[in-house]
Design goal:
mainly alpha; Cytochrome Bc1 Complex, Chain D, domain 2; two-stranded antiparallel sheet; two-stranded antiparallel ribbon; 14 helices; about 35% helix; about 0% strand; globular; disordered N terminus
Length: about 375
């Protein structure tokens, strides 16, 4: 009995040392490579043309690539996404690189079936692309090149359903390639950072698996982006969204409720929870968080080193990490090792040509969002 108790105490000490709360399942430390996917080349070529075609939006002014810009890692350099003309979005546009590997989508995780459904929502939502799918189908049918591409891809005549299938086929081609983490070519600093990531930093509690995401929602205390409420165009989209999602008191909300749209807890304890993002391709996809409030990887690491932000619903997993300057530099080096060759939409470009190379910081005291 004494031996068993001693063993239990040892396990508890180890768990606490790694920042893992007892009473819950210990987080997986498996952060291995992405699985391979099969791609139909002709369907993907069709999907690519559709992805970059502004005719798939209501006024034919924007395309999927307007918000998911190849030059920004198929994300967006703006803290808050542009959205449909005359409207604006109230969240940051996440990258669609590796989207095919996800099990749920959107910052609040409200879509969890397949990319076909995600594509439909992106096309039809009035504050995103505002497309009437009957009109979309007719526009595509009037383009002889599209007619031939649909036929060559085995879809037959262009239809709404085949459009929603072709775009996800193109997204399969947008996957990480040659990341130092995957190729085993991490620097010494990155290797030390990975050890911290799994150990002292406790990051692996939520960032695990092939995408380095547990696919769950957490509140980390990210500050609100009040541009949502200052800008009438963003605010009207925010109000319409919350009304449609059945959120309570939506006219008076002064925060993005996040995953509350899924659970609607009466006590509000689910307010401000957002899905754990993938950490792949971070090098190209800033600014960060659901509302773009953190501008650089340095600031991301500093944010978590402080134990996250302030929020009454903040996850109890977040504690001050007490990382040293050198340890924070190593952590950033590891996060950068998760980015591979830069995708341009047409081809991969070696990440060695990317101009914003990371340089260690000597003094982290003034690093803020």
């Amino acid at each position: 009995m004494g031996v068993r108790l001693s063993t239990q105490r040892s396990l508890l000490a180890i768990a606490l040392g790694f920042g893992v709360a007892m009473g819950a399942h210990a987080a997986s430390t498996d952060i291995g490579p992405l699985p391979q996917v099969k791609i139909n080349a002709k369907k993907a070529a069709l999907g690519k043309r559709l992805f970059f075609d502004p005719r798939l939006s209501g006024d034919a002014a924007i395309s999927c690539s307007t918000c998911h810009n190849p030059k920004a890692g198929f994300a967006n350099r703006d803290a808050l996404s542009p959205g449909y003309p005359g409207n604006k979005h109230f969240r940051n546009a996440p990258t669609v690189i590796n989207a095919v590997h996800k099990k749920s989508w959107m910052h609040d995780g409200r879509l969890g079936t397949n990319l076909n459904d995600v594509t439909r929502e992106m096309l039809t939502e009035d504050y995103i692309m505002n497309m009437d799918m009957r009109l979309m189908q007719e526009r595509v049918k009037q383009d002889p090149k599209y007619v031939q591409m649909f036929k060559d891809a085995g879809y037959g005549e262009p239809s709404n359903g085949s459009i929603r299938k072709a775009i996800p086929e193109y997204l399969k081609t947008l996957t990480s390639k040659n990341a130092p983490f995957d190729t085993g070519r991490m620097s010494g600093s990155a290797k030390r950072g990975m050890k911290l990531f799994k150990g002292k930093g406790g990051c692996v509690q939520c960032h695990n698996g092939a995408l380095l995401s547990d696919g769950k929602a957490h509140n980390t205390g990210v500050a609100e982006n009040f541009d949502i409420f200052r800008d009438p165009q963003r605010h009207q989209a925010f109000i319409a969204f919350n009304m449609f999602m059945g959120n309570e008191n939506y006219m008076n909300l002064k925060r993005d409720v996040g995953a509350h749209v899924q659970t609607h807890k009466a006590d509000g304890s689910d307010m401000g929870k957002f899905m754990t993002p993938s950490l792949r391709e971070l090098k190209y996809t800033g600014p960060y968080m659901h509302n773009g409030m953190i501008k650089s990887l340095y600031s991301v690491v500093a944010f978590y080193n402080r134990g996250g932000g302030k929020d009454s619903n903040k996850s109890k997993k977040l504690k001050r990490l007490h990382l040293t300057n050198d340890e924070m530099n190593d952590m950033v080096a590891f996060l950068e090792s998760l980015s591979g060759d830069r995708l341009t939409g047409n081809q991969y470009v070696s990440n060695e040509k990317y101009p914003e190379e990371y340089q260690p910081i000597a003094n982290w005291k003034n690093v803020r969002n």
